[in-house]
Amino acid sequence: MTQFEVKPEHQGLRLDVFLSQMNPELSRSSVQKSIKDGYVLVNGLSVKPNYRLLGDEHISFEQPEPVEVQIEAEDIPLDILFEDDDLLIVNKPKGMVVHPAPGHANGTLVNAVMFHCKDSLSGINGELRPGIVHRIDRDTTGSLIVCKNDFAHTSIAEQIKIHSVNRIYRGIVVGNVKDDFGTIHGAIGRHPIDRKKMAINEKNGKPATTHYKVLQRFKNYTYMEFKLETGRTHQIRVHMASIGHPLLGDEVYGSKKCPYHLEGQTLHAAVIGFIHPRTQEYIEVEAPLPEYFRHLLEILPR
Questions:
Q1: Catalytic residue positions?
Q2: Among 113, 125, 136, 161, who pairs with 140 as Cys (CB 3.0-4.6 Å)?
């Protein structure tokens, strides 16, 4: 069990933030789960993750024993856009979760790539996320890099960290976007009330920048291209909703009423470009628009 004495300079800091700073090897989400599960006591009492420190508390933190997780390789077809000995780029379909999580133990991209790659996957992100160096939302389609070894993983992770990976998305938003080109700046963090959502949060969020341009205008919708300068969770969805143009089909940040009976947001990770870890050559791969997306572009009223 780890003990912490809170100092006056920590007054006002959230408990989960404090523990994340004291234990940089732990993710914020894992710390929050430990607090909720009763592994953290403040002056001998259980509190919530958003508890604000007074500056003189005694904190006991008992990290739970890791639970061994067995992930099964599954023979799930993959749409492979590129592959060599170091990595592969897949075109993730709509509805597929990237890695196992509560409620999604099977049928994930990890289950599929474990079958395809056998024992050739990077292990840096742990046994739950072998080969996974970045992710896209369950209902977002498109290009995703999977690393086959730690050498490739380290290189791609560093490129993502310094924002040098070229990531271009295409999406359809509700309403007619006024400007043909634009940039949205807005730090993104957890929603202050609904913890399942992200939001523009200049106080506690991380800087985020999205560049956009209009590709085609429809009567009540706009087909757009987005270039990410950063890669925050739900970045495009949050940024577009913040300017009054949520993605079509996005029931989290937009309207729950959609006339086209879509399965989540109309967003596609079209292009991904990066320096190959071994050859040091620039590689760019484009994932074709999924059929449902192409169909929408044909039937949307002009």
A1: 137
A2: 136
Cα separation, 184 vs 235, in Å, equals: 10
Determine the Cα–Cα distance for residues 88 and 80; give it in Å rounded to an integer.
Answer: 7
Res 68: pLDDT: 46
Q: What is the mean pLDDT of residues 13-39?
A: 82
Half-sphere exposure at residue 115, Cβ-oriented, CA atoms within 13 angstroms: 13
Using alpha carbons only, what angle is made at residue 122 by residues 120 and 123, rounded to the nearest 5 degrees?
A: 120
Pairing assessment for the beta strands 267-275 and 166-174 based on DSSP bridges = antiparallel
Question: What mean pLDDT comes out for the span 194-213?
Answer: 89
Residue 214 to residue 204: CA distance in whole angstroms:
31
Report the distance separating Cα 261 and Cα 296, nearest Å: 11
Q: Does residue 269 or residue 126 have the better pLDDT?
A: 269
Per the listing, tokens 């009976």 go with 261
Q: In whole numbers, what is the pLDDT of the chain averaged over residues?
A: 91
